[in-house]
Amino acid sequence: MRSITEQGHIFEEWLTPEQIAADIQPLADRINEDYKDKSLLFVVVLNGAFIFASDLIRRVNLRSKVTFIRVKSYEGMNSAGEVKMIVPLQQSVKDRDVIIVEDIVDTGLTMHWLKAHLREQGAASVRVAALLCKPDKLQYPDAAPDYVARRISNEFVIGYGLDLDGFARNLDAIYKIKE
Ligand code: IMP
Ligand code: MG
Questions:
Q1: Which of 158, 18, 6, 138 is nearest to 128 (CA)?
Q2: Of the candidates 108, 117, 148, 145, which has an alpha carbon nearest to the alpha carbon of residue 27?
Q3: Which of 7, 70, 103 to mutate to test the pocket of ligand 1 (most atoms within 8 A of CB)?
Q4: Is 55 one of the catalytic residues?
Q5: Distance, CA of 49 to CA of 47 (rounded, Å)
Q6: pTM over 0.90
Q7: Cα(147)–Cα(132) distance, rounded to whole angstroms?
Q8: pLDDT tens digits along 107-164
Q9: What is the DSSP letter of 142?
Q10: Which tens digit of pLDDT belongs to each residue from 71-82?
């Protein structure tokens, strides 16, 4: 098993690139089925979701557009308790069926805030596709992802887009902190 050190913490490989790919295919299959004959707008949450989004979206065979928003709610290994919009949406969501693509749902604050924001902007429907979710930490029930590959307990993970203070996004596997 591979292990790495980041910011003085030891992380061990948890999901290999092959496991991640196998996890994503069923999500794409469900989206293809649920939105059959519709067109979709993917709203990708930067920075963390960019790698997951590129793998998920390429497996969705519906007519769709992709746009990006950048928000920040996390400092180091903890939620900062507020959502800051760093880069706003560049694309109208009015009357569109939207799927938010997110790396990981933790307290749910980010998804709770973003779903409300997109509804205010007139989206016809808003669902969330997240690679990972920490159900034990969820504080906003409406933020539970509609499409999720894996649920994890309250453990910090990095790699495959997920960072610790901006580092480790480029790792091809997902690593879990070793207590
Ligand atoms: P929430 O708003 O508390 O749900 O936090 C969601 C955001 O926190 C995600 O978009 C991630 O950027 C970040 N985050 C939460 N847990 C982790 C983790 O284990 N590793 C890396 N980033 C995380
Ligand atoms: Mg994020």
A1: 138
A2: 148
A3: 103
A4: no
A5: 6
A6: yes
A7: 9
A8: 999 999 999 999 999 999 999 999 999 999 999 999 999 999 999 999 999 999 999 9
A9: G
A10: 998 888 888 889
